[in-house]
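Provenance

Sequences were taken from public entries as deposited. Structures were produced by running a predictor on each sequence independently, with no templates supplied. The record for Ribosomal protein L27 from Allomyces macrogynus is shown for reference.
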Amino acid sequence: MSFRSNLVTMLARGASRKPLSPKGGNKNYYKGTGSKAMGQFVEGKSEYRIMPSKVRQFVVPDLTGFKLKAYVSWAVEAPKAALTKEDFLRS
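Predicted structure for Ribosomal protein L27:
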C-alpha cells in the first residue's frame, strides 16, 4: 500500500479521542495512580531512600458521634413522604 492509501484509510476510520485507560492499552501499559514518588534512588548504590517530606499523609476527620454508617442496608425502606428542598437543607 502506498502512503496516500494509508492516509486515506486512517482519515476514514478516525482517531479515538477518549483518554487512554489501563483497559485500552496493551498488557504492559500501567497508568499508575497519578501520585509522585515518596523518595529517590541513592546514586552509586542500589538503594531507595524514602523522604519523610514526600510521604503521603491522609487527613481523616474525627468521626466520633457520627450517625451515618459505612453502607446502606438493603432492608432499609424508602421514605413515605417526598422530601422538599427545605426539608433537605434543614436536615
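Strands lie at 39-41, 48-50.
The first helix runs from residue 3 to 13.
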